[in-house]
Amino acid sequence: MNLEFGRVTLVILFAIVPIVGFFLGLRAPALRSRIPIFVGVFAGLIPILSMYVPKKFIAGPTGMSPRLDQWLIILAGFALLLGIVNVLQNNMRKISRREKGWPFSVVLLIGLFVTGGFGVYGGISGQGIGIAADGTPTPFQYVTNWFFQPLQSTIFSLLAFFMASAAFRAFRARNTEATILLVAAALIMMGRVPLLELLAVPIPSLQPAAASASQGLGKLTEWIMKTPNGAAQAGIIIGAALGAASMALRVILGIERGYLGLGKGE
Amino acid sequence: MAGFFERIVHLDRRWIFLLVLVSVATPIVIPIGLPVTTTGPTRAAFEFIEALHEGDVVLISFDYGPSSAPENDPMAEAVMRQCALKKLRFVVCALYALGGLGLANNVVAKIEGEFPNLRDGVDYVNLGYKDGAAAVMRHMGEDIAGAFPTDVHGKPTSEIPLMKGVHDLRQVKLVFTAATGLIGEWWITQVHPQVGIPVIIGPTAVSAPKYYAYLNSGQLVGMLGGMKGAAEYESLLRARYPELAKFYTTTRAFTATKGMDGQTVLHTVILLLLLLGNVAYFRQRRASAKARA
Amino acid sequence: MHPPEIGVWIAAFLTIACLTFLYKDNPFFRFAESLFAGVSLGYYVGIVLNQTLLPNLFAPMRENFGQNWDLVVPGLLGVLLYMRYAPKIGWVSRYALAIYVTYYIGLDFTRRIHGEVLPQLARAILPLSSLDRATFFSLVYVLGVFSVLVYFFFSKEQGPITRRISRLGIWFLMISFGAAFGFTVMGRVALLIGRLNFLILDWIYPTLGI
Q1: ipTM exceeding cut-off 0.95 for this assembly
Q2: What are the sequence ranges of the domains in chain B?
Q3: With CB atoms counted within 10 Å of each terminal CB, which end of chain A scores lower, N or C?
Q4: Cα C148 from Cα C177, distance rounded (Å)
Q5: In DSSP terms, which residues pair with B89 in a beta bridge?
Q6: Facing residues of C184 across strands?
Q7: H or E element: which one contains B5?
Q8: Chains in contact with B, where contact requires at least 3 CB pairs less than 8 Å apart
Q9: What is the pLDDT of residues C12-32, one digit of tens each?
Q10: pLDDT-derived band of residue B2, with 50, 70 and 90 as boundaries?
């Protein structure tokens, strides 16, 4: 049995302490929130400390941090599927009560069970969920290619229509700021595509002039993206990052507890 | 005239939808073949990969899904073709939950068909998808096999010849991430400070403006911004490797270069719509001011 | 030219069903939407099981339990996450949730400082050793970063000077948002180009034998 310091410490912190906390929590309800927050402090501090404390026990190959990374890869997998329980509950209730739109809940569940079933079959049979060596897709990959990918692509492509409609109806130069926004948008839209060359297609004699004007516009576009846009984005990145970093500290230290469904004072 | 603008402003939006549909469909049916000019960030990305040596390892991360495949697929294909021609070894992984794996499998299969001499496990490897993106990236900085114990076919990573010399990201010369959201940004802000590896990003156009800040600060060596960036890369690739022209000139295969025709037509239409809308607005404002006076 | 296979017909039907929403909401779109939701969730099940749980959890424990005994803990923590759906002992899921959230927040903290704040600030600190075009543009850049940061300082009321600097910051932000709009148009249109390309070149043309 591998009893490296890193693994043993992680087991103590994230298994033994929660088990003790569970039994204590059965007797004292107040501890049901405090002990998880206490455990969370360590989970948050280990990746931070491993960056600044280059000691074997925390950052080395047998240290706590690399093993914790592997644990969280597994935990993330479970977390991804968490919403499925909620979806199953809601849609089964809809079907059993014959609520409005219940046939579509049947469609949803069929899609879920068939695709998920192919995924489970791929795992159990050893076939996998990708493309076999001879180039034929597994059933899961087939559903991915002809159902999942077309559906996702098309649903997102609807945004192009709504964006065009919104631009026409709402995008007005009402004041100085809106005008700056509109002019910048127009310059970028003209500079990123060969728009002048397109307009010159029916007039061949204008094509060289269009090409050279397009190059100039392209250079202006690149300068706008690099300098004013880059500056604004840097300011946004710095501001948002400082806010997020301070929020991160508040969460790790247990000051912010909303993520556990707890209010102030709980 | 006033009546015309009044009617235009209150036009049923479904007519605008139809206009958009026709604008995009027409260049597909009647290709125009507009030229593509290259920009600095794309050229920088191209030249960086060109400067790598035979046998160098490149990590290609599929951090996007079908929702941005028309932009990101051409980027990933172009970079893989370049790696194949330059005899760079490439490691493929997918960190985007909603569709990254399927797209990675399809693109790798396509490249396998185009370059039959490439050997799986020797010249390239597809490690598949893994949950927990940030944790995976962090662990890859220490031990790639620890994060990906097997490749996408289930073969243990420790038995794959290519991975024998690649223990962690420090043995990789470049990360290329084709990304739709935050995961691509994490290669820049988390992995680059952790191990110092150069990063090239191929973001969607929606998120591309943000990455100019990272280009300015030197955290990125290059960027392929959206479908335009992919089209630029295709044109650079064709110019340097004329033998690749066949992959970009068949009428059926979708390429970013062909997509630029539709982009250009629709940009023209949207600019006209913006102009019309604002002219109508200013006419209305002037009429209201006159009525009040 | 070969006629399109059945998969292409399925994809074409689903694509057109989604596009019908542009005319008005209808049962075909609702069917496609529900199918999308179900298939997406099923896709998650497939990839999580095959790509994470099997190779990273079950296989290592099965092949070498002595080396990987500690993986029982994340496995159990993962199951514990689902206890939130059990009414009486839902509070037990807080342990798993606390570990999951605070770990990723810990990563986020170092990412923000080392990957965002410090490099961006470093770029904004420049020597003025030579007076040329590059330095002038760099000054514009620094002015932009500084004025945007002043604009975002909400914790104190702005005075006459900071109000003017904020205004400049807003203008830089408007240029950036305008650029973002232009790029967003490109991004959204690209998706539509991809779908129409499929419909016309991969479905309609082969069906008509073109």
Answers
A1: no
A2: 2-31+258-292, 40-250
A3: N
A4: 13
A5: B57
A6: none
A7: helix B2-9
A8: A, C
A9: 999 999 999 999 999 999 999
A10: low
Q: What value, to the nearest 5°, has the Cα angle with vertex A82 and ends A77 and A87?
A: 140
Q: What is the Cα B250 distance to its own chain's centre?
A: 21
87-116 of B, contacting A, C-beta below 8 A: 97-99, 101-103, 105-106, 109
Structure token digits, residue C87:
């009414």
CA distance B162 to chain A (A): 19
Contact A74 C175 (CB under 8 A): no
Nearest CA in chain C to B157: C55
In a domain, C10, yes or no: no
**What end-to-end distance do the CA atoms of chain A give, in Å?**
40
Least CB–CB distance from C103: residue in A72, A128, A224? A72
Whether residue B249 has pLDDT greater than 80 = no
CB contact under 8 A, C193 and B251: no
Tell whether C149 is covered by a domain: yes
Q: Do C101 and A82 touch (CB under 8 A)?
A: no
Q: Given pLDDT bands bounded at 50, 70 and 90, which one contains residue C1?
A: low
Q: Supply the pTM of this predicted model.
A: 0.94
Give chain C's domain count.
Answer: 1
Smallest CA–CA distance, residue C185 to chain B, in Å, is 8
B39 touches chain A (CB under 8 A): yes
Distance from C-alpha of B182 to C-alpha of B60, rounded to nearest angstrom: 16
- How buried is B115 (Cβ within 10 angstroms: 0-12 exposed, 13-18 middle, 19+ buried)? middle
Is residue B270 predicted with pLDDT exceeding 60? Answer: yes
Protein fold of B40-250: Rossmann fold (3.40.50)
Asked if the structure places residue C156 within a domain, the reply is: yes
Encode pLDDT of C92-120 as tens digits: 999 999 999 999 999 999 999 999 999 99
- Residue from the list B32, B263, B273 with its beta carbon closest to the beta carbon of A167: B273
Strand (E) or helix (H) holding B61: strand B57-63
Residue among B205, B258, B259 whose CB faces C184 most closely: B205
DSSP H or E stretch at residue B196: none
Measured between alpha carbons, how far is B216 from B170 in angstroms, rounded to an integer?
A: 24
